[in-house]
C-alpha cells in the first residue's frame, strides 16, 4: 500500500470516527429521562395534537401533572424541542407534562378562548389518563400566557389548579407594549426625537384599536407597519385590552413561581413582580430573576448569536438556559404540599 493511499485512508477513518463521535454527543445530549406519548386532546372545539411526557424510572404513577400554556406565535407541542429540558426537570420532581399544538387558527383566539382550551386539556387529563393524579394538576405558562393562567385557575374543575409557574409574564397588554417599544429603541440607540416619534405613532395605533378601526383604516394610517397582516390586526384588536389584575386578585391560595430574565426587552419583570406581590395572597409567591437571561429565559449571549444558539441547541440544549432555572423549577415542584 502506497504512502499516499495510507494517508487518504487515515484521513477518511479519522473523519468517520469524528462524525460518529459528534453524532453520539448529539444523541446523548438530546436524550431525556422522559417517556413521550403522542396524544390528541379535544379542547375548545378543536382536536389538538400534543405530547404527554411522563417520568422514566419512577413507577407507573399516578403522577402529578404540569400543563403547558404557550406564549405568542405559532407553537407546536415541543416548541421545536425547546420544552424537553423543562419536561425532564419536571420529571425529576416526579411530574408528568402535557403540551398541545396551538390550533391553526390561533390568531382568531381571545385570551378567554385560550383559557377554555387549557381547562379542557386539564379535564381530559384528569378524566381519561389513569397515570395522572387528578388532584395534583398545575400550570406552566410563558409570556402571553400571563393573561391565561389566572383565568384557568378560576375556571378549572374541582379539585382545581394546585400551582402555577409563570415565565416572563406581564399584567397589562398596553403597558407591556410600551415597555417593549422603549426597550427596543434603547437597544437600537434611538435618540429622543426618534423615541418621541415612535411613541406618537404608537398612540395613534392605540386610538384606532380603541375605537374598533378596521384593518384597512389601520393600513391607511401614518406609520402603519406594512408587514402587519389583517389576521394579526384582528388578534391585537381582540386582545389589546387584556389585563390580569382582576383575575390575579381573585386567585385562591395557589403557590406561584414567577420567573423572569434580567435582560427581558419584552416584559418589565419588576412591574410584574410588584403587581403579583400586591395582588396574590400572602405567602403564595416565589420569585426568581436571572441575570444574563432574555425574555425567553435563554442565556442572552447565546440567544443573540445565531451560530451560538444553533450549536448550543444541537450539542448542549440544557445549557441554553441560565444557571439554576431548571433546578429552581424542579425544587419548586418537589416542595409543593402533597
Molecular structure report:
The longest helix is centred in the N-terminal third of the chain and has 27 residues, at 3-29. Strands 1-2-4-3-5-6-7-8 form an eight-stranded mixed beta sheet, sandwiched between helices. The chain has 13 helices and eight strands. The protein has two domains: 32-170 and 242-334, Rossmann fold; 174-236, no CATH class. α2 (84-92) packs parallel to α13 (325-334), α3 crosses α4 and α5 packs antiparallel against α6. It is α/β, with parallel strands linked by helices and 338 residues long. The protein is globular and about 60 Å long.
Blueprint of the fold:
Blueprint: H1 3-29, E1 34-43, E2 46-55, E3 63-69, H2 84-92, E4 96-100, H3 111-128, E5 132-142, H4 149-155, E6 161-167, H5 173-187, H6 192-210, H7 215-219, H8 230-239, H9 245-249, E7 256-261, H10 269-279, E8 285-290, H11 300-303, H12 306-315, H13 325-334
Parallel strand pairs: 3-4, 3-5, 5-6, 6-7, 7-8
Antiparallel strand pairs: 1-2, 2-4
Helix pairs in contact: 2-13, 3-4, 5-6
Supply database-style keywords.
Rossmann fold, eight-stranded mixed beta sheet, alpha/beta, 338 residues
Concise synopsis of the structure shown:
The protein has 338 residues and is an alpha/beta fold. It has helices spanning 3-29, 84-92, 111-128, 149-155, 173-187, 192-210, 215-219, 230-239, 245-249, 269-279, 300-303, 306-315, 325-334, and strands at 34-43, 46-55, 63-69, 96-100, 132-142, 161-167, 256-261, 285-290.
The CA-CA distance between the termini, in Å, is 71 Å
Q: Say how many strands there are.
A: 8
Beta percentage is 15-25%
Biggest β-sheet strands, sense, barrel: 8 strands, mixed
By DSSP (H or I, 4+ residues per run), the number of helices equals 13
The domain tally reads 2
Helix content: 40-55%
Which word captures the global form? globular
Spans of 5+ residues with little confidence (pLDDT < 50)? 11-29
Q: Under CATH, the topology of the largest domain is which? A: Rossmann fold
Q: What is the alpha-carbon Rg in Å?
A: 23 Å
CATH class of the largest domain: Alpha Beta
Spatial order of the strands forming the largest sheet = 1-2-4-3-5-6-7-8
Structural class: alpha/beta
Q: What is the averaged pLDDT score? A: 92
CATH fourth-tier homologous superfamily of the largest domain:
Alpha/Beta hydrolase fold, catalytic domain
Order of helices and strands: HEEEHEHEHEHHHHHEHEHHH
CATH architecture of the largest domain: 3-Layer(aba) Sandwich
Amino acid at each position: 500500500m502506497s504512502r499516499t493511499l495510507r494517508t487518504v485512508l487515515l484521513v477518511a477513518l479519522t473523519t468517520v470516527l469524528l462524525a460518529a463521535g459528534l453524532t453520539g454527543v448529539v444523541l446523548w445530549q438530546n436524550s431525556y429521562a422522559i417517556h413521550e406519548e403522542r396524544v390528541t386532546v379535544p379542547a375548545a372545539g378543536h382536536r389538538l395534537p400534543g405530547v404527554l411526557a411522563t417520568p422514566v424510572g419512577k413507577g407507573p404513577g399516578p403522577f402529578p401533572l404540569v400543563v403547558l400554556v404557550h406564549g405568542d406565535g405559532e407553537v407546536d407541542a415541543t416548541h421545536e424541542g425547546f420544552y424537553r429540558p423543562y419536561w425532564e426537570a419536571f420529571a425529576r420532581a416526579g411530574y408528568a407534562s402535557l403540551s398541545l399544538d396551538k390550533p391553526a387558527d390561533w390568531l382568531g383566539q381571545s385570551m378567554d378562548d385560550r383559557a377554555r382550551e387549557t381547562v379542557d386539556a386539564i379535564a381530559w387529563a384528569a378524566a381519561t389518563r389513569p397515570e395522572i393524579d387528578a388532584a395534583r394538576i398545575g400550570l406552566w405558562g410563558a409570556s402571553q400566557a400571563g393573561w391565561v393562567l389566572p383565568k384557568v385557575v378560576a375556571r378549572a374543575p374541582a379539585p382545581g389548579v394546585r400551582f402555577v409557574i409563570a415565565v416572563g409574564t406581564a399584567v397589562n397588554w398596553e403597558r407591556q407594549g410600551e415597555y417593549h417599544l422603549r426597550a427596543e429603541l434603547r437597544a437600537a440607540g434611538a435618540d429622543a426625537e426618534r423615541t418621541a416619534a415612535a411613541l406618537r405613532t404608537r398612540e395613534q395605533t392605540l386610538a384606532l384599536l380603541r375605537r374598533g378601526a378596521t384593518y384597512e383604516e389601520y393600513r391607511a394610517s401614518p406609520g402603519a407597519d406594512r408587514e402587519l397582516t389583517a389576521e394579526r390586526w384582528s388578534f391585537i384588536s381582540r386582545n389589546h385590552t387584556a389585563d390580569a389584575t382582576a383575575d390575579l386578585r381573585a386567585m385562591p391560595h395557589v403557590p406561584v413561581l414567577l420567573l423572569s430574565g434580567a435582560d427581558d426587552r419584552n416584559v418589565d419583570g419588576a412591574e410584574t413582580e410588584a403587581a403579583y406581590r400586591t395582588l396574590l395572597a400572602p405567602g403564595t409567591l416565589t420569585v426568581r430573576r436571572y441575570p444574563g437571561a432574555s425574555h425567553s429565559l435563554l442565556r442572552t449571549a447565546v440567544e443573540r448569536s445565531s451560530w451560538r444558539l444553533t450549536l448550543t441547541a444541537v450539542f448542549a440544549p440544557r445549557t441554553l438556559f441560565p444557571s439554576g432555572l431548571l433546578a429552581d423549577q424542579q425544587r419548586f415542584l418537589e416542595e409543593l404540599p402533597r
